[in-house]
Amino acid sequence: MRTLVVWCPDWPLVAAGLEGASAAVLRGNKVVACSALARSEGVRPRQRRREAESYCPSLVLVREDPVRDVRAFEPVVAAVGEFTPLVELTRPGVCSLPVRGPARYFGGEAALVSKIRKAVDQVSGVTCRIGIADTPFAARLAARNDLVVPCGTTEAWLAQLPIEVLGSPDLVDLLRRLGLERVGDFTALDEGVVGARFGSVGVDVYRKGRGCAVEALQLDDPLPDLSVSRELEDPVDQVETVAFIAAAAAEELAGRLAPHGLACTRLLVEASSDHGEALSRWWRADRPFTPRAMVDRVRWQLEGWMTAGVDAPTAGITLIRLTAGEVVPEEGRQLGIFGEPAEVRERVERHAARIQGLLGHDAVGTAVLVGGRGPAEQVRFVPFGEPRDEQSAAHHQPWPGRLPSPAPSLVFVHPEPVSVLGVDGRELGVDGRGQCTSVPVEVVMMGSASGSGSGSGSAPNPVSGSGSAPNPVSGSGQGRADGRLRHLRVVAWAGPWPAEERWWDVQASRRRARFQVELADGSAHVLVIERGRWALEATYD
Amino acid sequence: MADLPGIATLPALASERLLPVTPPLEEVLPQRGVQRGSSVLVTGRSPGVTALALELLVGVSTSGSWCAVAGFPDLGLVSASERGLDLSRLLLVPFPGTRERWPQVVAALFDAVDAVLVVPPASLRPADARKLAARARDRRSVLFLLDKQASWPGPVDLRCTVASSKWNGLGSGHGLLRQCSLELEVSGRGAAARPRQVPVLLSA
């Protein structure tokens, strides 16, 4: 099918507003896109961050954000959509459309190209490149060169291109070693021979090279309106009543998506009261929302809002609106891969989200083990609903200076300062070579032993470091600082485990050494010394 | 008979009511498992109380159930993971809110998971404590209470007290903490009515 492809070069940078600077977009530690200015300095995709920075020290770096790219590309798609409703979005920055109808209507391919170019320039200020060829694949290649390949000459045009344009790096590498340098060298072979030697993968690539369409354009209707709202004539102050009305809206929203085989994974719930107070919140699920799950979100949000106290609405609810923020192909609801029944997972998700509605998004979560030396550094708290990228590999790699397992069962959010005395009655130190200046004999700590203050959340800060309010009841009430000092004899000890971190970075470098001690009262602890100060970091309990 | 659908043998019925425990604790619990819907208080002033509570939770986690920990920001999660707790099925609520929210949040956890480990705040009202125990019974979940001062103002079905404990493995300037040998006192209702003393060896 004759296809027109609109390509806006370096789209991720345009979306980030950095196309004029020397800038690059990073995924993890690798460059995925860079601006023309950065490219002229030698920055290339797939370079490591440090390598790119060495080419261009003033390089501005931003994280990859597909959502940002898509959002910024939306006006371009809409502008192209003025010419035909059958626009297919390949990826942010690239969209394609079947060219036959529009070209006839707008007075030929050349005229259509210049009209689209002008329209895109108007909405985004970007000079796009446009290619037309007989297949979508060839049209994408043509767009790189801003070229209209005349009808029927696509195969000949493809034949003179270097073989790398076919993609499939493994196959292309092999073909190149076989001495085939141009697409034409490959497509001159017999299809049956190619199939016998390279299998179906080879045939697909071969057909692409011959200019046979192996992919069809998805001729979807434009997406339906993804927002459903209900206005209430009489203000309602009962959560259940609003939820009942929201249920109909949720069914309608799901009903609009379903004919397109879509479901939503991100939902905006907006509510406003008769006095104009409004609360909107994005809800995200890692699996598509069912109508019932949408209603649950509405209920929790309203429950949290209406019982908030200070910020609670002063009048009944008059408007409720549900908007699908992100849609994915609906693949049906399945059992968990590892045999966990879907209902169990759903039950946990539902109630975890309910608690998040009460306490805030960061208040509920799971933990992921990550790399690190100190007991507290080896754990990362992930709010529920956010992806748990398991980096257990990093955790199990060797971390020199980490205390060997078993790990302590209490790790204090705020380590308590202590002092450790040596044989000579002076404070114990650790020298530059990681040797103790003496033998630990006595530990002096404040108030009652922390060993008996079980899990006393002495600190009002959440593990995640943000969110929820200070919490006066979380402690077990055992006063830690009653002013008296406790002197405890060291019964047994081991160490030091010196840990030198980020020595290359003056600001962030830390030198610490850890000790295991068992004290006369039977408790066992991890003590850490940093810059001559001791702290009780963790307790074996 | 047991293979026929709809027919369950008596032991199978009993095991459905029980959540498993790890081997070191099998001798400790009167039914070699934790009864669903019950509340278990873990207490004692000697070290090893947290290890014991974690070990109880590990048994539930290894059977594939979800667990939750509420009000325990200082819990050592590396230790939990080393004992065999599946962190991907462990819900954490480090700060379950103030006096009014606390019972609401913990009650919601019983709806979500099969076992909840709670560090109760000192100011908990007896009425709230009773409600929570009833909620656990109602949802057939287990309420594990980690409470060194034993200040929990409600009833419990089983009480495990660490009477004394001793660390093994650490020398003077060498070695590494390996294990903790605990002397437990177990008492409670029903099968556990007669108090018993049991020695247990747990990893540090």
Q: What's the short story on this structure?
A:
The complex is a heterodimer of chains A (541) and B (204). By secondary structure, chain A is an alpha+beta fold.
Overview of this protein structure:
The complex is a heterodimer of chains A (541) and B (204). In chain A, 30% of the residues lie in helices and 27% in strands. Chain A contains 15 helices and 19 strands. In chain A, helix 13 runs parallel beside helix 14. The N and C termini of chain A lie far apart (71 Å). Chain B has 204 residues and is α/β, with parallel strands linked by helices. Chain B has a domain at 20-161: P-loop containing nucleotide triphosphate hydrolases (Rossmann fold, 3-Layer(aba) Sandwich). Chain B has 6 helices and 10 strands, in the order αβαββαβαβαβαββββ. In chain B, strand 4 (67-70), helix 4 (77-83) and strand 5 (90-93) form a beta-alpha-beta unit. In chain B, helix 5 packs parallel to helix 6 (126-139). The model of chain B has no long low-confidence stretch (mean pLDDT 86). The chains are: A alpha+beta (541), B alpha/beta (204). The interface between A and B is large, with 72 and 69 residues.
Biggest sheet strand line-up of chain B = 5-4-6-7-3-8-9-10
**What is the C-level CATH assignment of the domain at 20-161 in chain B?**
Alpha Beta
Element order, helices and strands of chain B? HEHEEHEHEHEHEEEE
Number of strand elements of chain B: 10
- pLDDT averaged residue by residue of chain B: 86
* Rg estimate of chain A, integer Å: 31 Å
Question: Which percent range describes the beta-strand content of chain B?
Answer: 25-35%
- Give the count of helical stretches of chain A: 15
How confident is the prediction overall: mean pLDDT of chain A? Answer: 80
The low-confidence runs of chain B, each spanning 5 or more residues with pLDDT under 50, are none
Shape of chain A: extended
Strand line-up in the sheet with most strands of chain A: 14-15-16-17-18-19
The assembly state of the depicted protein chains is: heterodimer
